[in-house]
Every structure is written in C-alpha cells, then in structure tokens.
Design a protein that fits this description.
It is built from four helices and five strands, in the order αααβββββα. It is α+β, with helices and mostly antiparallel strands and about 170 residues long. A hairpin with a 4-residue loop joins β1 and β2.
C-alpha cells in the first residue's frame, strides 16, 4: 500500500477536489432536507389552521345555546377530511363540550397542554399535530376548538425527499 507522501501532487489534488465535492454535496443535500422539513411543517400547520376557523365559525350557535348534538354534527363533518384524527369543542371554562374521533384514531391523540390556557397554539407530537383555536362571537371568546391531525402527508413528503437524496 502506498503512503500519502508517495502519491504525486496531481493525484493528491484530484483526491482533495473529490473530497471537497463530496463534502459540498452532502452539505447541500442536508440543507435541502432541513429546508424541506421546515417548509412542509409550516404548510401542514397553515392548511390545518383553516379547519378550526371554519368549524369554529359554524359552531357558535351550538356553543351559545349549549346544543351538544348540533356541535357533534358540526364536528362529524370532519369525516370528509382524511387526515383529521379527532376534534373537540371546549366551553369557555375549558370543559370538553363535544368530540369527534375518527374510527381508526388512537385513543391518545389529545393535546398535551390545557386547551383553555393556550387558546391559539399548535404542537407537533410523534404521531400527530395538535392545533387549538379560539371560537369568537362578537369579539368574545365563547370556546375553543382543538383538532388533532395525523402526519401521513408529512411522512409521505419526507419519504419522497429521501428518495431524491438517495438518487443524488
């Protein structure tokens, strides 16, 4: 085996250029993946945020008149959104008022924070995104809606990005 000192300058420069190219390619790929993860997470939050806004607007009467059946019907409309695992209306006091849960959703998909104390927030968990928004009627908060969404879309996107990285 030849020692590094015995290799010609021409071959040393080629090796150095090759090593530099590999390092730069790895750094560019890492930057691509990190940017993609951040962008995808923001997009998921932005898309999911519209759901509680719409559901909350449609539930003001149910919360005001304490009509639990109508509130549950309003939440049941989320069946049409495949990535929603569960959703809950909370009263102004933070008490659960009505709930929807997808038939195959795990039981542990609930926010890890007090919905009443954090009225407008989102948190990523291992398996889902928990999002909470206030329900406002005439400028007053009358309750909160929290939605838990699965991360299948995010995982699919990341798998595609991994395939691209492997191809590169």
């Amino acid at each position: 085996m030849r020692r590094f000192d015995d290799i010609s300058i021409k071959h040393k420069l080629r090796a150095l250029l090759l090593l530099t190219s590999i390092v730069m390619l790895l750094l560019a790929t890492a930057a691509f993946v990190v940017n993609d993860i951040i962008t995808c997470r923001h997009a998921l939050v932005r898309e999911t945020t519209t759901l509680p806004d719409v559901i909350g607007t449609n539930s003001t009467a149910a919360l005001t008149f304490e009509d639990q059946k109508f509130a549950e019907k309003t939440l049941a409309a989320l069946r049409a959104v495949p990535h929603v695992l569960s959703a809950t209306f909370h009263t102004q006091d933070g008490e659960p008022f009505a709930r929807y849960q997808r038939h195959d959703a795990p039981e542990n998909v609930t926010p890890s924070y007090s919905v009443h104390s954090v009225m407008d927030a989102h948190t990523f968990h291992n398996d889902y995104l928990a999002l909470s928004r206030p329900i406002i009627l005439h400028g007053n908060v009358i309750g909160t809606v929290s939605i838990q969404s699965d991360l299948r879309e995010l995982r699919t996107h990341l798998q595609r990005a991994a395939c691209i990285v492997i191809a590169i």
